[in-house]
Each structure stands twice: as C-alpha cells, then as structure tokens.
Amino acid sequence: MATYLISGIAGFIGSNLARELVRRGETVRGFDNFQTGKRENLEELKGKIEFRELSLLDATGVKDVCRGVDYVLHQAAIPSVPKSVLDPVTSHESNITGTLNLLIAARDAGVKRVVYAASSSAYGDTPALPKHEGMMPNPISPYAVQKLCGELYLTSFSRVYGMETVSLRYFNIFGPRQDPTSPYSGVLAKFITQMLADRPCTIFGDGEQSRDFTYIDNAVNANLLACAALAEKVNGRVFNVATGTRFSLNQTFKMLSAIIGYSRNPEYQEPRAGDVKHSLADISKAHQALGYQPTVGFEEGLRRTVEWYKQAVLTMTARGMPS
Ligand code: UD1
Predict the structure, then answer these.
(1) Is the pLDDT of residue 20 over 60?
(2) How far does residue 293's CA lie from ligand 1's centre (Å)?
(3) Which of 143, 170, 292, 309 is catalytic?
(4) Is the pLDDT assigned to residue 70 strictly greater than 60?
C-alpha cells in the first residue's frame, strides 16, 4: 500500500480519484483551498482521508504536506479557457507558480512520482486530427499556455532532478461532481443541469465544434495506471487521456435532449474567444505505455452523469436547498 497526495482533492477530478483510491484501500492525503473545489465533494470522504485546507501558493505548507508521500496526483488548478482570457494573472499564479511549488516540494520530500493533470488545450487549433503527442503544441488561450508550461516543468524535473513524472493530457473530462454553477463550468455539466431544470441552453458558435468528451472513470483509471507503470515506459512523458471519438455540440445537445426528455431548442451566441474548433485524441501511446483504454463510452457516460445530477437535485430539494 502506498500514500497518495491529491492536490485539488475537493474538485471534480480530485474527489473522484480520492474515492477510488479509498475504495482500493490506499492511504490518501489531500489539500484544497476551495477556490474552485467544493466542501460537499469531501463529505463522503470524511474520516477516510487526511485533509488540509491549503493553497498551492503556500510554499511552506505544500512542503509540509508532501512529507512521507509516494505519489502526487496534481489536479489543483484554476480551470477554464474563458476565465484565463478574462484574468490571465490569477490562473497563471495557480497553474504555473503553484505547480512549480508542488514540484519543488515533491522533489525535496523524495516523492516517487508526480502525475499531472495536463490539458488537450495544448494542441490548440492545429488542423490535423486526431491529435497525437508528437505534434507541435499550439496553445491559443492563456489557460492552454499555463497547462503546457506545467508539462514542460514536469519533464524538466524528471531530467534534471531524477524525480519521476507523468503528464496526462485530459480531453474534456465530464461526469458526476463536475460543478455546473459557474459561467465557466464545463459544457456538459451546464447543459445537463439546465435541461433538468427546463431552462434554456446556449451554444457558442454554430455548434459544429467537436470534442473528445471523456467520462471521469477513464481519467481516474489513467491516473492509477500512470502511477503503476514502469518508469522506463512513462517517466518524463506526456499521454493523451481520451476516448478517440468526437461529437459536435449540436450532436451532444440532441443526445442529451433525448436522454432527459428536453424539448427546447438551443440559443446560439457568438463563438467564445480562445475556443478550439475540433478536438480528437489518438490514444495509442497511452494504450501502449500505460495499458490505458476507455472503459466507459460517451453515451453511457452521459446517462450515468444525468442520473447522478438527478439524484443530486433530489438530495438538495430534500434538504430544503434551492435547486
Ligand atoms: C478546454 C479543454 C479541456 C479542459 C478545459 C478546462 C480543449 C479542446 N479542451 O475545454 O481539455 O479540460 O478546457 O476548462 O481545449 N460551450 C457552449 N455553451 C456553454 C458552455 C460551453 O457552447 O454553455 C462550448 C464552448 O464554447 C466550447 C465547448 O462548448 O466550444 C466546450 O467548452 P468547455 O466545456 O468549456 O470546454 P473546453 O473549453 O473545450
């Protein structure tokens, strides 16, 4: 059994990782400053994990939390392309300075391996599809630049300090516990909760942009495989984590409408600044080196996510909270 440290443990991906590790009987420590994470994501984990309220920018605290850790799963970040366009400095601090603080702390604590939540946004708008890791990155938004910079730092740390690192380029991860409440929330969390409440949905652009939407269980699995993989296959490297299929927003809107029984038409608005048109991954490298393959496809993932949000709305209503 090993000790895992999850940064951003109260977030969507961090809390899902924690639940799976706890289920497997591993020792889990985590930290979050609740800038984007949610306390309710930790409720089920109470008494099963060691939690510290801490910011990535608190270098002393981060050094302390890394002591005795075998694997770091670095999920903490200020996500969102549009948020980074509006305020590049704040997201730069968390996503770049915060990542550097954590890498230094992990190095000094003798952590065995750091696995990092990188992003498909690094590929930007290069016309070739599918995107493979050998392509030259072409980030568009500040967020994409920041996530790419984190990858480069990980590879550097593996080269100059001998600490093992793996970067996982997530392709539009979705599923239970993704926060739907911010204007910057992922599109599927927004659409599902808007449709369940019979509210209008907005599509930015013509809706023909496409994404390799990836269900959360696939991302959790990729992280655990990245910890277990032989160093000679993965150390200092970058891997796509996706499904290898893509759906346009118009298609996705129709699929969700059918699952939920929603009858409104979408409202179309101007495309978002910094948006990528198409995104689709080649996942063969992750398959070869990590043994990764998606276990939950897009439509099944949508169904599971819709069910989860339905239950979440019922729980909120039963507690007397506004739905
Ligand atoms: C990008 C990254 C993704 C990363 C995420 C972090 C790419 C291809 N993907 O996601 O890997 O995890 O940043 O934030 O760069 N949209 C609407 N209506 C809405 C909301 C969004 O039409 O109400 C559209 C957006 O304009 C976009 C698509 O839906 O075209 C997906 O948006 P979003 O879910 O925010 O993710 P990306 O920006 O694609």
Answers:
(1) yes
(2) 23
(3) 143
(4) yes
CATH no. for residue 291?
A: 3.40.50.720
Task: Give the span between the Cα atoms of 131 and 144, in whole angstroms.
Answer: 15
Top mutation candidate among 83, 121, 238 for ligand 1, by most atoms within 8 Å of CB:
121
Whether 143 sits among the annotated catalytic residues: the reply is: yes
Distance CA 282, CA 311 (A): 34
Ligand 1, residues at Cβ distance < 6 Å: 79-81, 119-121, 170-172, 186-187, 190, 202-204, 209, 211, 249, 272, 275-276, 279
Provide the domain count of the chain: 1
317 pLDDT more than 70: no
* pLDDT at residue 125 in the model: 87
Indicate whether 322 pLDDT > 50.
no
Nearest CA to ligand 1 atom 22: 203
Give nearest CA residue, ligand 1 atom 12.
172
What is the 3-state composition of the chain as percent helix, strand, coil, each rounded to the nearest 5? 45, 15, 40
Q: Is residue 202 part of a domain?
A: no
CA–centroid distance, residue 22 to ligand 1 (Å): 30
Q: Of the given ranges (94-108, 179-193, 251-265), which has the lowest mean pLDDT? A: 179-193
Mean pLDDT of the 10-29 span: 98
For residues 275 and 85, give the distance between their C-alpha atoms in angstroms, rounded to a whole number.
10
Containing domain of residue 138, as a range? 3-176+215-243+280-296
Closest-lying ligand 1 atom to the alpha carbon of residue 209: 30
For residue 323, pLDDT beyond 50? no
Count of residues for the chain? 323
Flag whether 24 is in a domain.
yes
CA dist., res. 227 & res. 164, Å (int): 10
Q: Is residue 87 part of a domain?
A: yes
Going from the Cα of 65 to the center of ligand 1, the distance in angstroms, rounded, reads: 32
**Residue 298 Cα distances to 8, 16, 215, angstroms:** 25, 18, 7
Domain for residue 40, yes or no? yes
